[in-house]
From TrEMBL, chains A, B:
Keyword Endoplasmic reticulum: no
Domain ACT: 350-424
EC numbers, comma separated: 1.1.1.3
UniProt source species: Pseudooceanicola batsensis (strain ATCC BAA-863 / DSM 15984 / KCTC 12145 / HTCC2597)
InterPro entries recorded: ACT-like_dom_sf, ACT_dom, Asp/hSer_DH_NAD-bd, HDH, HDH_cat, NAD(P)-bd_dom_sf
Protein name: Homoserine dehydrogenase
Molecular functions per Gene Ontology: homoserine dehydrogenase activity; NADP binding
Amino acid sequence: MSGRIRLGIAGLGTVGVGVVRIVRREAALLSARTGKEIVISAVSARTRDKDRGVPLTGYDWEDDPVTLATRDDVDVFVELMGGSDGPAKAATEAALKAGKDVVTANKAMLAVHGQALAELAEGNGRVIRYEAAVAGGIPVVKSLIEGLAGNAITRVMGVMNGTCNYILTRMESAGLPYDAVFEEANQLGFLEADPELDVGGIDAGHKLALLASAAFGTQVAFDAMELEGIGRLTIEDIRAAGDMGYRIKLLGVARMTGRGLEQRMAPCLVPMTSPLGQLEGGTNMVVLEGDTVEQIVLRGPGAGEGPTASAVLADICDIARGVRLPVFGQPASTLAAATPARSVTPAAYYLRMTLQDKPGALAKIAAVLGEAGISINRMRQYDHEGEHAPVLIVTHRTGRDALDRALSAMERTGVVKSSPVAIRIEEV
Amino acid sequence: MSGRIRLGIAGLGTVGVGVVRIVRREAALLSARTGKEIVISAVSARTRDKDRGVPLTGYDWEDDPVTLATRDDVDVFVELMGGSDGPAKAATEAALKAGKDVVTANKAMLAVHGQALAELAEGNGRVIRYEAAVAGGIPVVKSLIEGLAGNAITRVMGVMNGTCNYILTRMESAGLPYDAVFEEANQLGFLEADPELDVGGIDAGHKLALLASAAFGTQVAFDAMELEGIGRLTIEDIRAAGDMGYRIKLLGVARMTGRGLEQRMAPCLVPMTSPLGQLEGGTNMVVLEGDTVEQIVLRGPGAGEGPTASAVLADICDIARGVRLPVFGQPASTLAAATPARSVTPAAYYLRMTLQDKPGALAKIAAVLGEAGISINRMRQYDHEGEHAPVLIVTHRTGRDALDRALSAMERTGVVKSSPVAIRIEEV
């Protein structure tokens, strides 16, 4: 490689355009920092004739991203098309086989094919960098793989989907139900073409799966993740949680336990006064915990042209500076297959239910919890009209199995109006 | 260099012992991640016969750190002695000249001699890494130099002295005066041997100077920093600031302005609801702002055996993985001499004064501010007994020059009891 790093950029949406913009505007800065000239050889996108607000006439155009990825004058293939399969994967594979390094923002592709792609890259002496795939502009992959390299990582947590956090924040502040805020977010263009990627937790789950692999030295195991979206959260739960001093977040948590790798992307209660509890709107936050560093919290914009392009450029600069690390921090061939463990770490739970307002109803619920070995930390019964009484319970730490037994037993008591809502409280 | 990285560790205080502990405990993990065996060849400290709680018998002992630094069986000299000059500097120079890389936690040495040492290192093809020198376990040097490499950095801010933040937090929560909490902190062993390094803002200033150099491509210019400690802060100011919705922090701020490099480590007001405002106790926080990434906030333990040793190990792992970057992100020979600019960026200010309680006193103050072109955002006069009335003023944004003129003019009015307190309010 000469004194230049030549990019081939596939995908000219918001992020692609942002990358072109930075490469043009910051040429002198990038060259001072990397000792290399960073130039764009060619670009590719679905439609050629479209004003993207940035001049592209100096770059060759390729209709086919695979052709782009394998051009002789491309050193680094920048994949910003998205999608777990299709052209993104085909072009990434072609680039690696042709001896190109790859920088991508594609969490879906790496969450599904990360192990195979990492093996392909490392077999060819190439790197795949994906800082932009996780938590936008926050340098979290770097902080985890490099900054905490001296730690046995104990837990990785994160709020990593800005749209979900926007929806939950807005429900709380405006007192609006989920459907109304979902519609608002849709109108504002905050949602992916398939909204389930956002609100179903899939997008955030992809990100967590990548971090878990890097944290624990395991093969990416997105399929083994416990995944639950925010679509069933109600304004009642947001208010009730607030009343108990908590906020509800779509929180990813990954832990290596004695029984295997626990990965969960699901609504969780966190203390309102904690950094995670205070996170509002589209901002992302990742918490990294290690045996020696204790806890590091990283906060920043999780999406958008600038922040995501900033992460893409960081990866490009690393390549220009000769930083070459295995995709997941240690060689892909040495990553262990993850043994999935579902919710083995005990936690306190928030329970909300509506009881029939008759003598002994609450006693029956308390008895059921007691029989399952679950003790009650706090309980509130709210003022009500009519024959149904809203009740909130915060339990002490318990296993998920015991909780599930108790929830089933509650339904059999005949005193609960409908299935109780149970949400995990993560200790942060 | 073979498949081993051989360390020579000088300084076996808390951090040095922490490094030895991690190298022993995490040998397998470190080797999986770096592809190298990380071993300790020799150690050095002031006193040999002392139980440090970790076995040292497997390592050669050197009384002289210079001898340690230049041993044939040392690849990386780990400097954990401290002090800007003396043995730390002598041994670092000797190591670099002998072709060793250097990892250090020594902010004082780099703040004073950073440019010369970086030139020496780079002239010899060596690296100096200092993640542990800034904000303990937080990977802030890495985030700035590598993670935000695609950004023109616009501002760097930080609370980077845990002792000062502990003192300020404790004054507020316990309602105690500075002297009492200082004494407490001293009893608890939180203070440096020379407490002025902590409470005078010098230690935090050293850290900010290093970040500013990496952020703006300028030679380290600690001498040009505006420096003010926390010793003159009163419980009255902490309370009054709180009453206006602010907290007082020893905040470092570095900015490149049209008139030069602004670096200030001084007490500042920040909104109580901001991440900086909510930072309590010994925790550190660094805020990095760039033209594309917007704002990244990093939070974590700023000191202590584990966190600081974690940062030292990250640097060692980077060296083992072949990551070799210029000390301040671009070659030392290309760093520009900084043109110091003192407080050129306008800011709002908090003013606290005691006025004589007679007709027209407040009008005179308001007139003085108006004549200096400073407008008042909020003003409170407090209930009082006797003839002196406490008054708080929050100004709109103004230049420091105008403020200084107004402060002098206020004293000449004859209605202020003593010199008004003025503290900058940093927009965060």
